[in-house]
Amino acid sequence: MSGSQQAPDHNDRPLLRTFDQRLSELIAATATPDGCRRPGYARLAKEIRDTTGRTISGTYLWELATGKKRNVTLEQLDVLAEFFGVPPEYFLDDEAVRGIDDRRRLAVALRDAKVRNLALRADGLSPACLDALIAMVDEARKTQNLSSIDDDDDATRTSSG
């Protein structure tokens, strides 16, 4: 009976439902030093220990990321935030997530040398040229059936020219 009481409680608590998703996204975006895909949980736990000087086990990381465990302490939350370079609010506040996710997506995109090359070549162009390039990229994304990129920050575009 207590098991049936926990499920509705979990569904009514969006913070618990999103914590594991947010942690999983951060882990997925983590590249190994050689640039490969994300490390395994044991290796990630070692990297966390080496980087922060604090310990969290690979098994516990897996349990948190998959939603098997939900009892993260403030200290563990702080360790995760420090390692991933996000404020602790990232795990708790939707508004903090939006800004950080934009920067994280940019960092992931910039791992690609051709994307980096395109961005560097565009630096210094006039706002009108940048708008034309954005339109061309949007059209290229459509022809390849890729989702559109929302441009919430027009100030970034006009400040670079």
Structural class: mainly alpha
Low-pLDDT regions:
1-10, 153-161
> What is the helix tally?
9
| Percent in strands | under 5%
Helix percentage: 55-70%
Distance separating the two termini: 63 Å
Spell the H/E element sequence. HHHHHHHHH
Task: Describe the protein in words.
With 161 residues, this protein is an all-alpha fold. Helix content is 66%, strand content 0%. It has helices at residues 2-11, 14-28, 41-52, 58-66, 74-84, 94-109, 113-122, 127-143, 154-159.
Short description:
Helix content is 66%, strand content 0%. With 161 residues, the protein is mostly helical.
How are the secondary structure elements laid out?
Blueprint: H1 2-11, H2 14-28, H3 41-52, H4 58-66, H5 74-84, H6 94-109, H7 113-122, H8 127-143, H9 154-159
